[in-house]
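Much of the work behind modern protein science is quiet bookkeeping, done one molecule at a time. Below is the pair of lines this work produces for a single protein:

***
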Amino acid sequence: MRLQDKVAIVTGGGGGIGRATALRFADEGARVVVSDIHAESGEETVEQVRKMGGDAIFVKTDTANEGEMKALVEECEQHYGGLDILFNNAGVSNEEVKLADVSVEEWDRVVSINLKGVFLGMKFSIPLMEKRNGGSIVNTSSLLGFKGKKYMAPYNASKGGVITLTKNAALEYGSKNIRVNAVCPGVIDTNIVTPWREDERKWPIISKANALKRVGQPEEIANAVLFLVSDEASYVTGTSLLVDGGGLTF
């Protein structure tokens, strides 16, 4: 198994890409700390891991909150003795309005969770990885971190920031054997695209706006993340891996 005896934190692990990745990690032998702001869904992920014979705990966390992110990493160290893998995955979309109509409160909410949360995850996790003489971090960006989409300014800006922050961290900690990469999903079948799915006019277009003409599944992102955190990607750092069905080329 590719992650035997590794310890991993997955933020946003209560559903979608986070849950699929937590299950994938556990299936490959990792002990998983599942983090989510929604306790019920996070506990459900832990239950699924345990049913498959894996080892997991849940820690309720608001990733935009410095104290809670610090406590998450401390709980991981206390329970499992260290940390090898961080999947900074928690994220939100935004109310779709033109840039000038975005409220400051909405901007702050989206950027705090999507970008500040990634920063906090790395800030508190990297010292634990240094104790282990290495580790692997994957941050969730997006296809929209590469290109614009109307009415999505806070989300797009935050995800573009994740790409650059990933490169910065990779440069600073490569000498410590800590690899830092980003995964950039296209349109994936999760709750974050529910508003698009409910638009009977736009959804048939959005759902096929890529080379493969379909929506991606959370498990397909989980497989990419597994590769990035595994030893198979030992010479991969500072990259942003598009898993978008060819959406950027469309």
Summary: The domain at 7-237 is CATH 3.40.50.720 (Rossmann fold). The chain is about 45% helix and 15% strand. The chain has a mean pLDDT of 97. The two ends are 36 Å apart (CA to CA).
